[in-house]
Predict the 3D structure of the following.
Amino acid sequence: MPRAGLTADRLVAAAADLADEVGFDGVTVSALARRFGVKDASLYSHVRGLKDLRTRVALLAGGEMIDRIAAAVAGRAGKDALAAFADAYREYALTHPGRYAATQSPVDQDLVADAPALRRTAEITYGMLRAYGLEEPDLTDAVRLLRSTFHGYCALEAGGGFGAPRDVRHSWDKAIDALHIALTHWPRET
């Protein structure tokens, strides 16, 4: 019998909070059970195990992140949309490090194939890039460039990897300017 008050949604939200507190790798069924003052077994009627729990956290975080990005880019195009997208991405990554790490973790594609957050992420990202006149396969290449640039920058910033006295926000803005130029002059596949 499931313990009163425990639901999958409540457990996943608590696991996401735990990820922000201790890091995504610190999210375990045991740690979550301790948070609720129950035995590990009490959670298995709501989640199938650690892999399922972490996948659900990744989907929750991905949904939160794309909601913020969507709100930021609404009504914008070109460089304005790119900058708004990038800023919302960076803000989420830096303020929710555990949740953000969850969005970067590999997940079982069979478990997420129909995830609305993933479809929405693709729609918003590809929509923003279509303003640059990109079509497949260039769209996929451009998405990979943006993701690797944004992720690399955020990971280095969060880890204290920028030691030079130059303001990191200024460097971020320059990176967005450079990405805009690259997207505007994209070497189209023929």
About this structure: The CA atoms of residues 55 and 110 lie 11 Å apart. The chain has a mean pLDDT of 93. The chain has nine helices and no strands. The two ends are 60 Å apart (CA to CA).
